[in-house]
Amino acid sequence: MDLTAPLKTEYRDLWKSCEVRPSHLAEVDALVDRIVAHRKRYAAAGKPHGVPWHVVGIIHMLEGSGNFATHLHNGDPLTAQTVHEPKGRPVHGHPPFTWEQSAEDALVLDGLAAQTDWSIPGTLFAFERFNGFGYRPKGIHSPYLWSFSNHYAKGKFIRDRVFSATAVSAQCGAAVLLSRMVARKLTTVKGAPTPVPVPVDDGGILEKGAKGPAVTKVKTLLKKWFDANSPGEWATLAIAPNDVFGESLRKAVRIFQARVGIEIDGQVGTDTMDALKAKPSPLSHASVPELAFPAGLKVGVAQDAVHLLQGWLTLHGFAVVVDGKFLPATQKALQKFQVSRGLPPTGVLDRATWAQLVQPMNAALTPIHGVTPLGGLFVAYAHQHARQKPREVGGENRGPWVRLYTGNEGKDMLWCAGFATFVLKQACSSLGVPMPVRQTLLCDEMATSAGSRFVKGGTTAAIKKLRPGSFFLRRAGPGEGHKYSHCGIIARPEADTMDTIEGNTNDDGSSNGIEVLERTRGYSGMDFIVL
Questions:
Q1: Would you say 156 and 143 are in contact if contact means Cβ atoms under 8 Å apart?
Q2: Which of 53, 277, 351, 439 could form a disulfide with 42 if both were Cys (CB 3.0 to 4.6 A apart)?
Q3: Across the chain, what does the average pLDDT equal?
Q4: Using one digit for the tens of pLDDT, what is the confidence trace for 404-418?
């Protein structure tokens, strides 16, 4: 692609109307300050080829985050030749390379050393050529140049040759950095006027770098949500009590978005605010005993609450005997867990530690907004549970997850129906609709309570009636004493098979396994309940 007259005009027009989004201004200025701090080194690298220092510095910030231990080409470590595109650079010399060696190779390889036009159009063309012109066929301005400005909203290559129309670049664009440098009179570009500010419509979006009463309101709502849905976790997120949208708040917003099932971008727009303001699900976390903080646990204590602590530690991979006795082994496992979560290794169960221990169950119970009808929401909740890997601990059909789904535990407490109907209740509670099937621990009772929703299997016509959110019921064998031996949720029915989410199973498809799994099954020997 050549720098034609129309392209020059395009670059000039974009430059003149470029304005940093206010919510990103503080972050852009911080990046500019880091670049300027190494002006002499960038100037020395560019001088032999006539490449302006600000061009070298901006590329270094975008490709290597300003880290002088990385290649200018793509940010790979200098301890070896590059492994990402362009691969195998530099071709001369032996690692470890100096940053200057790498910079020399990159400037020559990418044609910057041969360029003489460092006007605004020439500079912006060089930046876009360095990253590639792949955004032009997509009809958007390249985020490599314009991210964080009024010229870019969304659309991004999330990996080589894979474009997402909804992904948003989290990296500041090269043109935006240069624009800010010129505006602050930190550098000059031939023939470049200071950019003229234009009004920027952020669409009501708050993001990292924003400041003011709206950010304070978000923090208040978010804290209220965490306190209701994951007691104790807010204190672990280190959110400063001010009106600044910092990195900690961005991470908290992403956690919230993931748990309520909306787009995860760390920004607070209409969807996120609506979810924050939504009424809580009737299925209250406060009513779940497995989430209640057991105060007073310490070495030497022997009580039921210690079983709960030991179960959660084991579920996180810090296995101890679940015997209800808080002995040194349990204390040691607790300290290891605290270290793994960046918490002080006190060996004492405080609220911050407890919030981290029970986070998977809190995540499974988090309300999902904006999904209908019931079948779709039911499947979404089932996937949400499966992602937390619920399983037994402390013995057959025992542990926090089994008690959540059944209200009890023990060898005879089979929980496939308990899991399936618990998740159905969660979905029904969110939509405020009655249960179409009774919440029960018995597969047979599910079938009898389904009424006209029950469908006898064995025919193509039966399979065609299935929808996401239906149930399968596996018929029991002779002498089992009941009609059905196992059940689960149908996430996706197809012509010959179905994708399922089921509890109390294992890799072999057992009806008395130890965990929740997502499986693929055939239809043989099955009856169904259609939602």
A1: yes
A2: 53
A3: 88
A4: 999 899 988 999 999
Domain limits, CATH 3.90.1720, in the chain:
369-529
pLDDT band at 199 (very low <50, low <70, confident <90, very high): very low
Provide φ and ψ at 488, rounded to 5°.
-170, 180
State the Cα–Cα distance between residues 373 and 199, nearest whole angstrom: 41
Cβ neighbours for 55, distance < 8 A, ≥ 6 positions apart: 46, 112, 118, 123, 126, 127
CA atoms of 76 and 88, how far apart (whole Å): 11
Average pLDDT over residues 48-75: 91
User: Of 482, 470, 487, which is closest to residue 416 (Cα–Cα)?
Assistant: 487
Question: CA 273 → CA 182, 369, 479, distances in Å?
Answer: 36, 12, 56
DSSP annotation of 190 reads: B
pTM of the model: 0.55
* Band of residue 149 on the pLDDT scale cut at 50, 70, 90: very high
CA dist 472 and 464 (Å) reads 14
Q: Where are the alpha helices (DSSP H) in 285-442?
A: 304-315, 328-340, 351-357, 359-365, 374-387, 400-406, 416-431
Question: Are the C-beta atoms of residues 349 and 442 closer than 8 Å to each other?
Answer: no
Residue 209 CB neighbour total at 10 angstroms: 23
Q: How many CB atoms lie within 10 A of CB 116?
A: 7
- Torsion 60-168-136-118 (CA) sign: negative
pLDDT digits (tens, 9 = 90+) for 86-143: 899 999 888 899 999 999 999 999 889 899 999 999 999 999 998 889 999 989 999 9
Residue 281 confidence (pLDDT) above 70: no
Q: H/E element holding 19? A: none
What separation, in Å, do the N-terminal and C-terminal C-alpha atoms of the chain show?
A: 56
Q: How far apart are CA 412 and CA 140, in angstroms?
A: 60
Contacts 24+ apart (CB under 8 A), 285-291: 285/228, 285/229, 285/230, 285/231, 285/362, 285/365, 286/228, 286/231, 288/361, 288/365, 288/404, 289/403, 290/358, 290/361, 290/400, 290/401, 290/403, 290/404, 291/231, 291/358, 291/361, 291/362
Contact between 53 and 42 (Cβ < 8 Å): yes
User: Using CA of residue 397, residue 402, residue 405, residue 410, what is the dihedral sign?
Assistant: positive
- Dump the DSSP string for 448-495: HHSGGGEE--SSHHHHHT--TTEEEEEEPPTTSSSSEEEEEEEEEE-S
The boundaries of every CATH 1.10.101.10 domain in the chain are: 285-362
Q: State residue 261's pLDDT score.
A: 58
369-529: CATH topology is endopeptidase fold (from Nostoc punctiforme) (3.90.1720)
> Three-state SS for 317?
coil
CATH superfamily of the 285-362 domain: PGBD-like superfamily/PGBD (1.10.101.10)
Give residue 220's pLDDT.
93
Instruction: Give the pairing type, strands 162-164 and 454-455.
Output: unpaired
**Above 50 in pLDDT, residue 435?**
yes
